[in-house]
Amino acid sequence: VKSVIVPVHNSESWLDECLKSVWEQDFKETMELSVFNDASKDSSAEIIEKWKTKLEDAGVPVIIGSNESSQPRGVGFAKNQAVIQSSGTYLCFLDSDDVMMPQRVRLQHEAAIQRPNSIIGCQVRREPLESTERYTRWINNLTEEQLLTQVFTSHGPTVIMPTWFCSREWFFHVGKFDEGGKGVPEDLLFFYKHIQKGGEVFRVNHCLLLYRYHPQAATHSILEGTIWNHRVRFLEDRVLSSWTSFTIWNAGKQGKKLYRSLTPANRKKVTAFCDVDEKKITRGFYTYEESEVRPKPKIPICHFREATAPFIICVKLVSTTFSLSCMCKISICSI
Fold first, then answer.
1. Per-residue pLDDT reduced to its tens digit, 214-229
2. Cα–Cα distance, 97 to 94 (Å, whole number)
3. What is the C-alpha separation between 298 and 288, in angstroms, rounded?
4. Residues forming beta bridges with residue 120, ordered by sequence position
5. Three-class SS string for the chain?
6. Which of 56, 273, 285, 320 could, after both became Cys, cross-link 298 (CB 3.0–4.6 A)?
7. 159 neighbors 146 (Cβ within 8 angstroms)
8. Nearest one of 25, 48, 33 to 3, comparing CA atoms
9. Strand 99-100 vs strand 90-93: parallel, antiparallel, or unpaired?
10. pTM of the model
11. How far is 274 from 260, CA to CA, in rounded Å?
12. Which residue pairs from 280-285 have beta carbons closer than 8 angstroms and sit at least 24 positions apart in sequence?
């Protein structure tokens, strides 16, 4: 059995189209739909019941769970509950405001069979088309290598959560979604745990999802600062823990922000900032004014030609997105 996992909260505007796309799958093996309704106050429950009849008539069992309290428990909780109540050996995650193409379950299942410890993603079409153009281009065009080397960028997971497909066994090996509720980037935290446990990332190079952008999306409730802190901790764990010293490439605002965000132990490993901007270089050093250490740490600023590898490159990936990158003498990986 393959389980389509749909968390729902006040989704009446999109739910019909979303559940219709489950009904239209061309997958010939056994499939079930597991929906968890997280305290919706609109007509979501009625729409789910209507599609339960249609889907079960078509041979697709539907499992419905719900949080009947007045307050939603959040996306992480709703996804976990939908997984727990399901029985599939593979899980196909679908957000209630998105629409699957008919071949999605079939093509991602074919890929997942070959890759038991992978999160399988796919390419997407954004709706409306002109929203987040750069981000959509990034999602769709990362190379196989970049799916692993760009895990540190501010874009988050290199295969986006609404496209995830993985085995049930691997999902529970990683350990479920964080249930902290509103403001918690549960997909990013799960993705980081997945990488830390040796998980792989693969994308089916077909557009298999209509990915909606709208003001009510849960993504908008997550603060940039929260994501930044999780990214820095992940960088420290994955990269800096094995480095004894490094240079931060960027003596400007972002480079200094990164320095200040590091743990005291990792700040001590920063041998210099490097840059190409003469103004910054002529200052000679950066004083960490907020430090409680006396004398306050002074970090040299030099031209990149004089700098020593390895580097953390902290620059814009494109004009609207900051990226952290780590560069060793022989390889560059975008972070």
1. 766 656 567 788 889 9
2. 8
3. 6
4. 165, 202
5. CEEEEEEECCCCCCHHHHHHHHHCCCCCCCEEEEEEEECCCCCHHHHHHHHHHHHHHCCCCEEEEEECCCCCCCHHHHHHHHHHHCCCCEEEECCCCCEECCCHHHHHHHHHHHCCCEEEEEEEEEECCCCCHHHHHHHHHCCCCHHHHCCCCCCCCCCCHHHCEEEHHHHHHHCCCCCCCCCCCHHHHHHHHHHHCCCEEEEEEEEEEEEECCCCCHHHHCCHHHHHHHHHHHHHHHCHHHCCCEEEECCCHHHHHHHHHCCHHHHCCEEEEEECCHHHHHCCEEECCCCCCCCCCEEEEEEHHHCCCCEEEEEEEECCEEEEEEECCCCEECC
6. 285
7. no
8. 33
9. unpaired
10. 0.89
11. 16
12. 280/251, 280/252, 281/251, 283/251
Residue 330 pLDDT level (bands cut at 50, 70, 90): very low
CB 88 within 8 A of CB 32: yes
Task: Report residue 266: phi and psi, to 5°.
Answer: -75, -30
Q: Tokens standing for 37?
A: 């309704």
Cα separation, 209 vs 199, in Å, equals 23
Residue in this structure with the two tokens 């800096």, named with its chain if needed: 240
Residue type, 148: L
CA 126, CA 94: separation in Å to the nearest integer? 15
DSSP bridge pairs for 223: none
190 residue type, one letter: F
